[in-house]
Amino acid sequence: MAQPWTVVDKWPTPEGDLELRQRGPKDFLILVGGRVLMSSTAFRSELAVADLACKPLAGRVRPRVLIGGLGMGYTLRAALDALPADAEVTVAELNPRVVQWCEGPLAGLTDNALHDWRTRLHIGDVAKLIAGGRAEWDAIVLDLYEGPHEASQRPDDPFWSQAALQRTKAALRPGGVFTVWAEDFDPPFVKRLTAAGFGVDVHHPGKGGRRHTVYVALPGAAR
After folding, report:
1. Which CATH superfamily is domain 43-219 in?
2. Where do the structural domains in the chain lie, given as residue ranges?
């Protein structure tokens, strides 16, 4: 018989209760409103969204990377593993409770990535960090719990609208990389990226099972 899940912590949010559940030493789930957001046993696309952004930066001097969304810390860990020792990685997370989890019960999953000397933590909206910088980042990685999809196509969306994508492009340094995690492929998002002046590659990491989508967008490489 499978071991039952236990609720480690719960926090109310406008979308419903944010929960951390555990079953065994390293088996965790993060849920909101009963919907599973992350699992410690299925995170290949979280690794890919960081790898595809950061591995091309390995030869740069003091690269600066911005990650939107902390989750269980896998994306942050993958970025740190792909980057040189002089890199700086800023991870922006809206909910301080998630930060507490990653510094507490989840820390062992990522070798305590939040305490790596290259990590800078920002509690707040990553969209505001993007809007506030020009040619500031070598890579921007958005690993939010909802990527681009049909409901995010409104013209004022803070992440996926045409205006938001223009702000993201302006925040990247020359030769910068923009990667995005999404649950499913969204063709209109690719069109908006192209219209904003990005060249786009679409990846579906892994083999078998549910395969999420990772977009890799390069400014000035529109095809």
Report:
1. Vaccinia Virus protein VP39 (3.40.50.150)
2. 1-41, 43-219
CA distance 79 to 101: 19
Q: Round to whole Å and give the CA distance between 97 and 74.
A: 17
Beta strands per DSSP E along the chain: 6-13, 16-22, 28-32, 35-39, 64-68, 88-93, 119-123, 137-142, 172-182, 198-203, 213-219
Closest CA to 26 of 108, 123, 101, 114: 108
State the DSSP string of 117-142.
Answer: TTEEEEES-HHHHHHT-SS-EEEEEE
**Amino acid (1-letter code) at residue 69:** G
pLDDT (tens digit per residue) in 135-158: 899 999 999 988 998 877 788 999
Name the packing angle between helices 162-171 and 187-195 (round to 10°): 50
Q: Which residues contact 133 (CB under 8 A, 6 or more apart)?
A: 171
**b/e per residue, 123-146, with b = 16+ CB within 10 A?**
eeebbebbbebeebbbbbbbbbbe
Give the 3-state secondary structure of residue 62.
Answer: coil
C-beta of residue 9 within 8 angstroms of C-beta of residue 101 = yes
Q: Alpha-carbon distance 11 to 127, whole Å?
A: 23
Q: Which helix (H) or strand (E) holds 46?
A: helix 44-54
Whether the predicted pLDDT of 223 surpasses 50: no
Q: Phi-psi region for residue 128, left (φ > 0), alpha (ψ -120 to 50) or beta?
A: alpha
Q: List residues bridging with 36 in a β-sheet.
A: 31
Amino acid identity at 130? I
